Structures are given as structure tokens and as C-alpha cells.
Amino acid sequence: MDENIVKAETKQFIVVKLGGEQYGIDIRYVDNIVRLQKITRVPKIQPYFKGIINLRGEIVPVMSIRTKMGLPADEFTDASRIIILKIEEQGAIGIIIDAVKEVVTLSTNEIDKVAYDAKDEKSNFINGVGKHGEELISLFDINCIIGEKEVV
């Protein structure tokens, strides 16, 4: 075997559905995936925050990516899930998604960066597009999704 062949770096993503589209979440940020449960409303928070849940004694804020991205409101089904993300500086946060599809491994040469388009609200939250077979998966920029900055 030729030692000069450079192995492309790979990343794993959990593929989730939001509306009719597929999005990838870097698996390094995913702490847990839980069924939808009672979300306790909290007054005077941003409209995309749905409230908080009690996850094994830990209070976790839950947000709607759909609301934050300007998509139609969440439609809860048996497939709806809350993905618990762990971000070092911010602790845990839950995001509501329509369904979990699969885990995929993408090499860096299967991921294209996306051009930033200030007019396209959704592009603010996407930092790449993964090619998995014939399917395209928009890859979430987790820091933009959970960041506090408002999209204008």
C-alpha cells in the first residue's frame, strides 16, 4: 500500500428532517436524542425558545429551529424529537426536529462550503452541503443556530 495517499478527514453527522429538507448536525455536539415531552413555557424569552424541559434533573432550554429559521411552525408527530446539544460554553440546549433519519459519515471532499447570502435567512445557519450518495444534506452551523444574535 502506498504511504503517500492522504486519507481524507471524515466527520459524522446525524441527518434530521425539518419540513421537506434534510439537515446534518455534527455528531460531536449531540449529547442525547429524546422523545418530545412537556415543554414548560417561560415568559419574556425570544419567540424561537419554546421553554424548558427537565431531563433527568437537568433543566434544558428548548428552541424551535423552524421558528428561528423563518420556516412554518413546528408540527409535532410521533417522529418529532428533541436533540440535546452540548456546547462547552453554553451547556445543554434542546432543538426540536421533525424526525431523525440516520447517521452518515462524510469525508471533507464530500462537503462543499456554501456562499453566504445575507438575503437568505436559512443560509445564515448552514455552513456547508454534504453529498451522500444522490442526496444533498445541508449542514447546520451549530454556533449560529444556538447563538443569541438575532437574524434581521
Helix content: under 10%
| Helix count from the secondary structure assignment | 2
Radius of gyration, in angstroms, nearest whole number:
16 Å
Q: What order do the strands of the largest sheet run in, or round the barrel if closed?
A: 8-1-2-11-10-9
Q: Give the SSE string.
A: EEEEEHEEEEEEH
End-to-end span in angstroms? 53 Å
Strand content: over 45%
Report the mean per-residue pLDDT as an integer: 88
Number of strands: 11
Structural class: mainly beta
Provide a quick synopsis of the model.
With 152 residues, the chain is mostly beta strands. It has helices at residues 65-68, 142-146; strands spanning 10-18, 21-26, 30-35, 49-55, 58-64, 81-87, 91-97, 99-107, 111-112, 126-132, 135-140.
Structure description:
The protein has 152 residues and is mainly beta. Helices cover 6% and strands 48% of the residues. The protein contains 2 helices and 11 strands. It has helices at 65-68, 142-146; strands spanning 10-18, 21-26, 30-35, 49-55, 58-64, 81-87, 91-97, 99-107, 111-112, 126-132, 135-140. The strands form 2 sheets. It has a 6-stranded mixed β-sheet. A 5-stranded mixed β-sheet has the order 3-6-7-5-4. The longest helix has 5 residues, at 142-146. It is globular, with a radius of gyration of 16 Å.
